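seq as requested:
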Amino acid sequence: MKVTLGEPEILITTVATAAEIIDEGIFKFGKNGISLTAADRAMVAVIDLLISREAFEEYEVEEEREVGLNMTNFLSLLKRARGSDKISLELIENRLLLTIYNGIKRRFTVPLLQLSKEEIPPIEQLEFKASVTLKPEILEDAIKDASVITDAVTFHATKDYFKISAEGDVSQTELELREGEEGLLELHVQEDSKAKYPLDYLEKILKAAKISDEVMIKFAQDYPARIDFKYEGKARISMVLAPRVSE
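struct tokens:
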């Protein structure tokens, strides 16, 4: 098994985002690309990512392989690559070799972990009632605005608008987008939907905005949200986040 990537930032950003949520995970090298699905220890969020095989210059995977890695360690090695470098990952026996090319070859051995498969919430069974597609910088600004006021943010979608709001003890903030306005790319609402989510997790997933050209938010009334960051058909970084339900 060997794969080579000409845009190291795709892999670095993907792993960096996942590392904000989980400590370790099982990467699957399959026919469609490299994927990972894992829940955080608190079972508040599930990270779900895919780097499609189209993102790679070379993708030699004859059969599906699973590789357990420590996220922090893997990320620290990936960060040794610069923007103009190429990265290859090669599985030889029980070793994962990371090679960085830029005129010369620099090789690293990535430690493999024997991880048991954890039980993941059935995120594919979720049924959302609202879907909103935005420019990533819109969501980024709204989350940063809310974070200076409180520790949770509310998403509210109707057929006419999508609103992100937060309210603290002394201040509040609100961002409203209506169809046709710049920044709101798509709005599909089956039912009016409103739910509150913890800001600390949303701030972590924002790392994915670095390589994304759009973000899709799916949710329903007091229901989990799925947030998908996408990059030119080459990568998808998603998080499913449990709502914060008022007592």
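The longest helix spans residues 8-21.
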